[in-house]
Amino acid sequence: MRSTLVRFGSLLVVLALVLAACGTQTGQTQDPESSDPESSDPATGEVVEIRWFCCLGAGDDPAQVEVEQAVVDAFNESQSGINVTLEVVEYEEAYDILAVQLNSPNPPDVVGPAGISGAEAFHGQWLDLQPLVDSTGYDLSQFAEGAVDFYRSEENGLEGLPFAIFPSMLYYQRDMFDEADLEYPPHAYGDPYVLDGEDVEWNFDTLRELALRLTVDENGNDATSADFDPEAIVQWGYEPQYQDLRAQGSYWGAGSLVADDGTTAQIPDQWQDAWTWFYDGVWTDHFIMNEAQAQDPTIGATGNPFQSGNVAMGLSHLWYTCCASAVDADGNFVDDPNWDIAAVPSNDGVVTSNFNADTFRILEASNHPEEAFTFLTYLLGDASAELLQLYGGLPGRAEAQEAFFDGLDERWTQGVDWQVAIDGIPFADNPSFEGFMPNYTEAFTAIQGELTKLRSTPDIDMDAEIAAFTEELQGIFDRAE
């Protein structure tokens, strides 16, 4: 759940960057002498030194570092030709430090874990793994269907392999559906929804209808009633839980805020429709909390509305199992979890279950790509069970997924249909909604600000607003270095 927003460090961090570029490493476990490029040359017959740079996402917590170092030690002891050094940099400084180290004579080799946003901050600087996959015969069939293609593009080739994946799904509260005498949303992709005894397509129109019926005021009137009071809502029908505007748009169809030329700002037509649907859901239909309500700790759980227990449905990702039921100050559940998960609705007959994913990548600037690939496949294979438990992600390797869900069942005992998550993987958005944008950091900040504006401001002309935001994005893109 950590934002992948690029952070700018202090003056002390900048000094550290300069030292790193000169060959002195800033990581917690890096040996400065190991950064000598000559000692890493396989032609000398010496052990090849590989650097693992962590972290552009999770991984810098001291408890995580302990496990990561144990993984490195186990790899180093397993063979004699490669020595891996773990270099851990605090998340807040990692982007700046890596940016400088990329220009040093001995840049890092393997980087991660990193999500799409973290990786796109270094767009075009990752190694195409396909030649190494081909030359080593590495088996891609071990990964879930659709998961490998998520990392493949015509421009840059195969930049990553699946490690921790987070498909999206619809979380819903069974008891709220029961109370409204509504059928649960369909769990199987392609199944219709049974509304008032009739089969209807499971799409965003149907989701809207359910959300209206599940939005209730203090007098028990739902949002379809003429007596409904939008100033006295006690239960809301829907929440795009932790989904920024790009994510919300991508559920209506994969796309990008930058055109194929890599410089022109655009809002895909289906994203404009999705944003307008969201805005109307807040201010016209009232089945989505506005910003004040969402941030009220007694109503929207300070930005986590579904967890508040006041929301019937929420689109989010598998990682949201971290936070799907209310907890007290000690981290103990204060209610009996009664949620389950269902299929993502379609739009215009097409399902797009947008995708979050963390993995490890090899820098194109690596001096030792073959040895780095050996270590990378170790992280994805032998070390994956330990690391996935550490980071909380669904294994990209299909054979390891059952054990992962067994662990979730120990925490969530209400009987969640985890097959929904697996079935959503083939519907991943490609291109990813988190993909490349010029001036990525500033653009991301603007997107977050626009979401807050839409959620905070009634009576916006959405056509004019989308045009103005497109112009704002173009200005940001034009300032890209």
Which SSEs are present, and which pair or pack?
Elements: H1 11-21, E1 48-54, H2 62-78, E2 82-88, H3 91-101, E3 110-114, H4 116-120, H5 130-136, E4 152-153, E5 157-158, E6 164-173, H6 174-179, E7 193-195, E8 198-200, H7 204-213, E9 216-217, E10 233-239, H8 245-250, H9 269-283, H10 291-295, E11 311-317, E12 339-342, E13 346-347, E14 350-351, E15 355-362, H11 369-380, H12 384-391, E16 394-395, H13 401-411, H14 419-424, H15 440-456, H16 462-478
Parallel strand pairs: 1-2, 1-3, 10-11
Antiparallel strand pairs: 3-15, 4-5, 6-11, 6-12, 6-15, 6-16, 7-8, 9-10, 13-14
Our measurement of the CA-to-CA distance between the termini, rounded to an integer number of angstroms, reads 28 Å
E-strand count: 16
Class from secondary-structure proportions: alpha+beta
- Profile the largest sheet: 10 strands, mixed
> What's the CATH superfamily of the largest domain, by name?
Periplasmic binding protein-like II
**Strand portion:** 15-25%
CATH topology-level name of the largest domain = D-Maltodextrin-Binding Protein, domain 2
The total of helices stands at 16
**Radius of gyration, CA atoms, in whole angstroms:** 24 Å
Q: Give the number of domains.
A: 2
Q: Bin the helical content.
A: 25-40%
- What is the highest CATH level, the class of the largest domain? Alpha Beta
CATH architecture of the largest domain: 3-Layer(aba) Sandwich
Low-pLDDT windows of residues = 1-40
Overall pLDDT level: 88
How would you portray this structure in words?
The chain has 481 residues and is an alpha+beta fold. It has two domains: 11-164 and 358-413, D-Maltodextrin-Binding Protein, domain 2, CATH 3.40.190.10; 166-354 and 430-478, Periplasmic binding protein-like II (D-Maltodextrin-Binding Protein, domain 2), CATH 3.40.190.10. It is 34% helix and 15% strand. The protein has helices at 11-21, 62-78, 91-101, 116-120, 130-136, 174-179, 204-213, 245-250, 269-283, 291-295, 369-380, 384-391, 401-411, 419-424, 440-456, 462-478, and strands at residues 48-54, 82-88, 110-114, 152-153, 157-158, 164-173, 193-195, 198-200, 216-217, 233-239, 311-317, 339-342, 346-347, 350-351, 355-362, 394-395. The strands form four sheets. Strands 1, 2, 3, 6, 9, 10, 11, 12, 15 and 16 form a ten-stranded mixed β-sheet that branches. A two-stranded antiparallel ribbon has the order 4-5. Helix 1 runs parallel beside helix 3 (91-101), helix 2 runs antiparallel to helix 12 and helix 15 packs antiparallel against helix 16. The two termini are 28 Å apart. Residues 1-40 have low confidence and may be disordered.
